[in-house]
Amino acid sequence: MPRLAVASLAGTAIEFYDFFVYGTAAALVLGPLFFPAFSPLAGTMAAFATFGVGFVARPLGSVLFGHIGDRHGRRPVLMASLLLTGAATVGVGCLPTYGTIGAAAPLLLVALRFLQGLGLGGEWGGAVLLTAEHAPPARRALWSSFPQVGPAVGFLLANAMVLALSAVLTDTEFATWGWRVPFWAAGVPALAGLWLRSSLAESPRFLEIDDHARVPLAELVRHHGRLVLLTAGALAAGYAIFYAVTTWSLAYATERLGVSRPVMLGCIMAAVVLKGALTPLAAMLGDRFGRRPLCLTGCAASALWMFPMVALLATGEPLTMFLGLAGALIAFVTMFAVIAAYLPELYEPRVRCTGAAVGYNLGGVLGGALTPIVATALAEQGGRVPWGVGAYLTGIALLSLGCFALLPETSPGPVPPVVSPAAGAMD
């Protein structure tokens, strides 16, 4: 289990590094470079729109790679998704800008961002299922939480790279060529991740299935459509909060409040470090008290904290900004630390890869794709304190709270036998 958990963590860290380095670049430089005809605000929103394309692609990737995972095994998904995301990320770093090739530049940017999202849509399902299906039932949330630490590690690596470049390069140098370096650097860990994953064993639960679903998506829609919609709605709040903290707040603080880029990146990174450290601890509580109570608690805390968060952020003071962001991510991790165990337990093994991944990534579309764009627009229309952003995030948190309330608990217990396609939630 330790070796498998480390391999899953490393893979998700690499893939989310690729995803997050784009979000950071979108907040800082991609608007002027690829949408120069727009105003600064419109350019930032256009860059965030390309950021959202990755979220739209993620459910498609979960369908594609989920089909592979349910038909041919979880392990092939890990290899193919990592290769696709890594290649697309390096490609973004090689793109000519609008000033060089005109309108083709943003079109190519959107295409590569789509491929990034496609790969990431398969990554989460493969990494989480391989870990969850190997884990002992009484410690499934704990072991499954290691892939959930990967996004925090990937975010820290991406922003540490941008922070280091910002410290040694002038703004002109960073905008001219420095922004490309984090994208080029993605190729090395992607190759290392492929080597690390090449020796992993296939999931024992997959090997036990005698009758694999011919078309997992069709079976999922036929027998588990309501469950997919509920899980998507339940996860929307986590995505909205995470990307409000890590992407929108960076653009808001640097452009509206005049906070320096290194200071704001430092505040965000410190909050993400706290989030990553608390993930296994929250998962242990999920093994002790159940998945659903943790999720309901996290959603309720999120709904209560969004207005204080934007008020603290609007001060422009590093310590108070950190407190606002840290409180939001603590609420986030309370629910998302157990999701890697909870979602697979909700779906039966023959459609589990597709079901868990589609539900997870549809939540990303609902909560993550539009949040930077909507929050940027709401902040522009308000005063110094972006109360509209607080209201928007609170509304999503309440929506997710209602969806979690309608989902069943999946208490840890012995692994049940594989059953027919029409059976209920398992394992």
Q: Care to describe what's here?
A:
There is one protein chain. The chain has a single domain, classed as Growth Hormone, Chain: A (Up-down Bundle), CATH 1.20.1250. Helices cover 81% and strands 0% of the residues. It has 19 helices and no strands. Helix 1 runs parallel beside helix 4 (74-93). The protein is globular, with a radius of gyration of 20 Å. With 427 residues, the chain is mostly helical.
* Number of H- or I-type helical stretches: 19
What is the CATH architecture descriptor?
Up-down Bundle
Structural class by SSE content: mainly alpha
CATH class: Mainly Alpha
- Report the portion of residues in β strands: under 5%
Fold-level CATH name: Growth Hormone, Chain: A
Gyration radius, rounded: 20 Å
Can you tell me the overall shape?
Answer: globular
First CA to last CA: what distance? 18 Å
CATH superfamily: MFS general substrate transporter like domains
**Helix coverage percent:** over 70%
**Integer average pLDDT:** 83
Number of domains: 1
Q: Stretches where pLDDT falls below 50 for ≥5 residues?
A: 413-427
**Count of DSSP strands:** 0
Largest sheet: none
The string of secondary-structure elements, in order, is: HHHHHHHHHHHHHHHHHHH
